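To the team - adenosine-5'-diphosphate complex, inputs and output below.
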Amino acid sequence: MGAVGYRHRVRRLVREKQELEAKVDERTAEVVLQKDELSKANEALNRLIIQLEEKSRQFEESKVKAEQASEAKGEFLANMSHEIRTPMNAIIGMTGLALDTELTAEQRRYLNTVKTSADSLLTIINGVLDFSKIEAGKLDLHPLAFRLRESLGGMLKTLALRAHKKRLELAYHVLDSVPDFLIGDAGRLRQIILNLVGNAVKFTDRGEIMVRVEPDWKTAEEVCLHFAVSDTGIGIPDEKQRAIFEAFEQGDGSTTRRYGGTGLGLAISSKLVELMGGRIRVDSKVGRGSTFHFTARFRRQAKPSARPGLTPPPGLRDLRVLVADDSQSTRRIIVDMLRAWHMQPFEVESGRAALDALDRADPDGLRIRIVLVDAQMPGMDGFAVAEQVNRRPEPRPSTIMMLASAGELRDAARCRELGVAAHLIKPVTHSQLLDAITKVLGLSGAEAAAEGLGAVRLLPRPKRPLHVLVAEDNAVNQELVVHLLKRRGHTTTVVSSGRDALARLEQEKFDVVLMDVQMPEMDGFQVTAAVRERERTAGRHIPIVAMTASAMKGDRERCLEAGMDRYISKPIHAAHLLQALEGLVTGPNGEDGREDAEPDDTIDRKALVTRVDGDLELLRRMADPFIADCPRRLGVIKVAIARQDCSTLERAAHFLKGSVGNFCAPAVFEAALRLERMARNGDLSGAEEAAARLEDGIERLRRALLALLDASGVRA
Ligand code: ADP
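Output:
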């Protein structure tokens, strides 16, 4: 290669080098750029991470705040429940006291209505609490034995006053094919019915409200009932029909202003219906009315045939009754009831038609024995009918019974003036109508006698008078408790604060302390702690019964853990209070050797009737939950024996023994005691046989109780 060739090559190499260098520079610039971008991205990422951390911190903070708020809400609910329950306590307690005094049947009826209404108000208050429980998923059902027809009648009674004030007809009809003896949460059913019927009354200005119950399906053990509550009110627009079942939803703003309400009722009802294994829905047309349908499942009471429905005295058969009411539904219901008792009803729809029917019937010698007449009918009302009937010549005119509306006090007086034999408030329940008819016909003196016995007389006479320290800061409650205890022959010392309670306990000897949990300065828990601390050295144990107005779960446990011996919740029920106090002091339940017991009889009837002071209604209220609860307790006992679990067995047997102790059944009591002792001694040989004997005893006790209640005609 010559010199030219070299130069040429060198130049090319130099050019190539320069090109390469330019490329490298370019790449380097790119890399620098990329590096720059990367670091920017990195920075952004860091900022993002910081932001995320901040957000997560904020989230944590708000979560804690939400938890605190929820706790505060729970506390608020508990306090509110306490505040509202205190005056309720006074209303219910004082009504109870008034009911326990000498009263005319009429006064008793009015006061009973006050009492039922107060009870239902309490149900509403509990409803508000329920809603929060529902939200927290903490609402449980408490199934107990109940009788559908009478319960339903009772539920509707509380709304009768409101319905009748608006001159609305309120009626209910339970088809014959619906079983009466059920096990379910009657309290929650009542809540649903009160909500639906309450709404029906609220949103209806004229016409009638009807509750119908029919079976949806049934098996030997279970039944699903279909309830329909219809009204002839304002109706609900199609587009709103779904929303009203949501919480705080109302048909429309203007109705809210006009009718009031919270929009909570249906939300709670639909939740309760769901818990009862059913569904709720509404059929409605604006301006025509609404029908709310819901279903609910109930267990059927075992062997209900052992406890037949209402048994009318034989004297009623074929008696002719004239039913005069302008409401077709009411007529139909009453006629159905009368037919079921084998009476002969005739129905007419006006006062004039009633008089005509009497004219037609009498000359034939087919005397109408009873005229059941509605007080408020257009044209000729019930009173005018009564007047006309009274003017008739002999033979003696038929007996007149008036179907009146709640709240019409004048009606009662007018009925008396006109010699009307009975004055029934609508809607009339089966038992009320039957009682009234048997009474006016003089067929049964037992009911009348039972009525005079008073409502709240209780349990065994106390063995000895007790000296009770009452620590309670509410003056009304003080009065109520002192009054109740005094009437039972006990003496009391009252203090209004925890501090005074402690001081008194130093100075005076008491048999038992009744202590409000929520007191100013030093609350019931603190007082109990101080008392128990003192006792550790002194060696004595004074029984303390806690009273609390708070309805929140876990209170019972808290009281017992704090060293209190019993717990009762407010509003105070005389029976519970006395049972708790006297039961604690007079020794283990029922271990008081009843000398006059008849050994071959399961229950000592005489002793038992004396024990409830002749108040068989009270006995029924004691018996129903006992009967419903027994199978479960016996189940626990069997499982405990199979597992050789002495402590569970001891507790279960002890509990059953306590319950049995209320019913004067010495042999059954003995059987439970035997099991309890075996468990306590840790020797379970023969436990199975003892359990079988107990089960057998309890079955006999169950039958004996039902027979006693049936024979005395006490109904739910
Ligand atoms: P409230 O306490 O407002 O009555 P509910 O949840 O019981 O709450 O009812 C929600 C709404 O549903 C009511 O405000 C009303 O607009 C409508 N509603 C319920 N029942 C009826 C009825 N029988 N007739 C007409 N509207 C009704």
